Amino acid sequence: MTTPDLDSLRLLVLVDELGSIGQAAASLGIAQPSASKRLSTVERRLGLVLVDRTRRGSALTPDGRVIAGWAHRVLSEIDGLLDGAEALRTQHEAHLRVAASMTLAEYLVPGWIGELKRGDPGLYLGLEVTNSDQAAEMAREGKVDLGFVESPGSLPGLSSRRVATDRLVLVVPASHPWARKRRPVTAAELAITPLVVRELGSGTRETVDAALRKAGVGPAKPLLELGSASAVRNAVIAGAGPAVISELAIARDVADRRLVAVAVDGVDFGRELRAVWPAGRRLAGPAAELLGIAVRNAKSR
After folding, report:
1. Which fold has domain 6-91?
2. Would you place residue 72 in the very low, low, confident or very high pLDDT band (cuts 50, 70, 90)?
């Protein structure tokens, strides 16, 4: 007896589920005559009549329904095998899973990864680029081996280590009145000025809000809320309004006078950038190596 092919078994199961060869054929994207021919081939191979063909239509015979039930179990097992094989392949390939907030992912993490890869060219590394809240949550839940965040607050359930320092800068386009301001902008002025900001959950947004609260003021309602440092930078260059953004993102624009950095009096926009991983877990292998590279680079900055 010759074993039926999997596509024919899928067709038989669909005939059982949908009640007609025509609907089953349409579901598989094949012509009805082709489907009928395929079912006839299965019948010959098994030596059983599986389909009762009449002028009113076609339906599975009692034997056909039994075979369809067994076929459904075979296909489920095949799907389980394929899913399991994919999971094992991903597990073997993704030797290191990393999540990083957008500023870190754009300006710092690629250099650290490059150094790690030069020491281990065969290493497979998966990098998830997101905001700080999401990166911390992925590390907390064990979805990544290591996270990099900009969040200034506490990080429950996580161990952390500083890997860099950063400074946020108030920037405006050259046409903005603050670009010609001789004195620093005060905390009070900044607090009543709508800014182009990052989305909630962003480490940059949290740092700005925390720094203003520490200065005794609160942030104004945002002018625009955007999902990346690049989008904020581009909006400011286009004249949308002021923004407070990482100096990593705008250093070249300030040097080229596309943006003007404005001093702010009484607000500390310095921050630490941290690596995070689940509390109580000891980093080892590529994750520990990547953390070491990040820390060494922080010392050299």
Report:
1. Arc Repressor Mutant, subunit A (1.10.10)
2. confident
- For residue 279, the SS3 value is coil
* Spans of all domains in the chain: 6-91, 98-274
pTM of the model: 0.65
Spatial neighbors of 60 by CB under 8 A, at least 6 apart, are 12, 15, 16, 50, 51, 52, 68
Q: For tokens 């990040």, what's the residue?
A: 294
CA distances (Å), 243 to each of 157, 174, 201, 213, in order?
A: 32, 13, 17, 17
Nearest Cα to Cα of residue 106 among 204, 173, 200, 195? 204
pLDDT digits (tens, 9 = 90+) for 139-171: 999 999 999 999 888 899 999 999 999 999 999
The answer to whether the CB of 271 falls within 8 A of the CB of 207 is: yes
The 10 Å Cβ neighbour count of residue 137 is 17
Q: What is the mean pLDDT of the chain?
A: 89
> For the CA atoms of the chain, what is the radius of gyration?
30
Beta bridge partners of 160: 276
Beta carbons of 242 and 172 less than 8 angstroms apart: yes
Q: What angle do CA 261, 110, 136 make, to 5 degrees?
A: 85
- Looking at residue 243, its pLDDT comes to 96
Please check whether the two domains, 6-91 and 98-274, share a CATH topology. Answer: no
List pLDDT tens digits, range 179-195.
998 899 999 999 999 99
Going by CATH, does the domain composed of 98-274 fall within 3.30.1220.10? Answer: no
pLDDT at 237 over 60: yes
Q: Residue 54: is its pLDDT beyond 80?
A: no
Q: Looking at the predicted structure, is the pLDDT value of residue 44 above 60?
A: yes
